Amino acid sequence: MKNISVLVSGGGTNLQALIDAQNNGIIKSGKINLVVSNNPDAFALGRAEKADIKALVCNKKELGTDFEDTLIKILEDNNTDIIVLAGFMCILSEKFTSHFANRIINVHPSLIPSFCGKGFYGLRVHEAALEYGVKVTGATVHFVNEIPDGGKIIMQKSVEIKDGDTPEILQKRVMEEAEWKILPLSLEKVCSEN
Ligand code: GAR
After folding, report:
1. Which residues lie across from 115 on neighbouring strands?
2. CA of residue 188 to ligand 1 center, whole Å
3. Which residue's alpha carbon is at the smallest distance from atom 9 of ligand 1?
4. Dihedral sign for Cα atoms in the order 114, 117, 122, 127
């Protein structure tokens, strides 16, 4: 059984999908034992508490340059094997990613290599997809290395763009049809193979 820690920043619907998948037996080769948020106001923290999962804040604003060292210590102190970035809106340095090489996965709301990298996060990704006029988008789960959204791809799922889509409508469809499905499946795959 792998010891899983999930890093979050906001609403935590992907965290919820992981909790549900754990309860439904889709995730069976690991257990979520810790949730850490860089943002003390993240709704995701309440989701963790409700599911009886230890929830901590590692406040990036307050910690400044000590943020990553503090986060590494929290993850090590909790014996983390696998780290999931589930709507975690901080870019991690090479020091951090190499410390946990091949043990960090991220969900990104587009088909990488489209609409990814620095500056592409959350709703902005969907705004960019609609602005470009692509007819198909989706989500990607990938390993995290020092290149933002540049690590090896684990799973992808495509989602159709429809006439009249707004960034908000598209974000919801991509979450429902892709992210909430491939994130739990990818996590189980990584836990069972490593
Ligand atoms: C999700 O769409 C996730 O893919 C995206 O932010 C949203 C977080 O929602 N992540 C990124 O853009 C990372 N580059 P959530 O907090 O409800 O899971």
Report:
1. none
2. 19
3. 87
4. negative
Q: Which of 91, 173, 175 is the best mutation target for the ligand 1 pocket, counting ligand atoms within 8 Å of the beta carbon and taking the most? A: 175
d(CA 45, CA 52): 11
* pLDDT for position 194: 77
pTM confidence score = 0.97
Point out the residues of the chain with pLDDT beneath 70: none
d(CA 29, CA 125): 32
Phi, psi (degrees; rounded to nearest 5) at 23: -70, -30
Instruction: Name the pairing type of β-strands 136-143 and 153-160.
Output: antiparallel
* Domain spans of the chain, in order of start: 2-193
**Residue tagged 């406040």 (tokens):** 59
Residue to mutate (ligand 1; options 7, 14, 37; most atoms within 8 A of CB): 14
Question: 2-193: what fold?
Answer: Rossmann fold (3.40.50)
> Which residues form the pocket of ligand 1, taking CB atoms under 6 Å from any ligand atom?
10-14, 44, 86-87, 107-109, 121-122, 125, 175, 179
What whole-number distance in Å separates Cα of residue 51 and Cα of residue 61?
Answer: 27
